[in-house]
Amino acid sequence: MRILQLYDGHERVSPEESVPSIVYYLSKSLVRKGHDVTVLERRWENLMSSEIDEGVNFVRMTMRIGSSIPYAEIPYKMLKNPASIIKFVSDRTEFAIRTHVFLKKNAFDVVHVHLPFSACILVNLNGHIKEKIIYTAHVGEEKKRFKLNSGKGTLPLLGGFSPDLYLIRKVRKSIVLNQPIKERLIAMGIEKEKLDVIPNGMELKELNIHKDELDRVRNRYALNKITVMFAGPIVQRKGVHYLVKAAKILHDNMDVLFLIVGNQNINKEFTMQIKEYVRRQGLTNVHLAGFIPYEDLRVLYSACDIFVLPSFEEGDPMALKEALASGKPLIGTKVGGVPMQIKDGWNGFIIEPGNEKQLVEKISYLIDNEEERMRMGKNSRRLAEKEFSWEKIVEKYLNVYEQVAQQ
What we know:
Elements: E1 2-6, H1 18-32, E2 36-42, E3 50-53, E4 56-61, H2 75-78, H3 82-105, E5 110-113, H4 117-125, E6 133-136, H5 142-145, H6 163-170, E7 173-176, H7 179-187, E8 195-197, H8 211-220, E9 226-231, H9 240-250, E10 256-261, H10 268-281, E11 286-290, H11 294-303, E12 306-309, H12 318-325, E13 330-333, H13 338-341, E14 348-351, H14 356-368, H15 370-388, H16 390-405
Parallel strand pairs: 1-2, 1-5, 2-4, 5-6, 6-7, 7-8, 9-10, 9-12, 10-11, 12-13, 13-14
Antiparallel strand pairs: 3-4
Helix pairs in contact: 1-16, 3-4, 4-6, 8-11, 9-10, 9-14, 12-15
């Protein structure tokens, strides 16, 4: 099959970011299965307009309106600002028009879309292409994105419009990351036949870490205590403030380091609140490491002792999956696709979101019980190999691709 992966996000397709890493590894897995794969994205600063990487053909379009610097223009921020929404819509329209022209010159059996904005415009530019489109809804804030909270919290400049729902209704097939989201969409009137559940995959071999790498990273980040790690953007929905509160409760009682890794620039005000709380409380057991290159991050998953994701909303979190594949005991909240990755009491614990008492209790238990940490960590790796390797996930995608290509 000839397959186009379409990504119009605010960062390049690479192994270093959450959704772009899915596009990256899915594309490479499809090539290994013998398929012809092209990734179409915007041309980022210092990148070539086209290149072939392990058999994947990357084509990058130069945009005249949007920035060529990753993370310079973040959609949710632009959609809050009346002055920038016109630029946002213009940029995505330009991306859609250029994609439309590209598709006129290049034939594909399947067009796989990973963000809704440009695709919503594309399906109106080309009425025939929607029958070839598969949309994966990489949704974390599902209540806002799918209007599951009666519009509460929806960005006012969208006027209650959901690009995700619009696209799902238009295209041939859509993929969601967990069963609860599928059931909610069906309840909203989406045809059951248009929806499939496929979780994110994992490149397991990249998380097989050599001892020399472990020693290097442990020294660089001073991991000389039992380490509880969080990885993800420092935003409210990730529940970072509850992890910091747990660190405060445990500060005087346990010799433990709380390592908080992730982009601090998405919500700078919230990040400053967290830093100020840590400073005011004198929490010497908390290290806010900020953004870390993937080359170190992949090792940190193995270097830590416990991984915690105290989120209020999730789709199918990649950070949790990387910790899973690294053989770590996990603590996560009962939201989205988290229960697909944590079997309570077997490879970690499921807690209620916003419950710092439960969080402290489960962290304390794992700190005190090394054998349980080892047992649960081994079970995590088993689950990753059984359910989430790209070799398993790509077969599920190919099944959907074949259905669409035969239309």
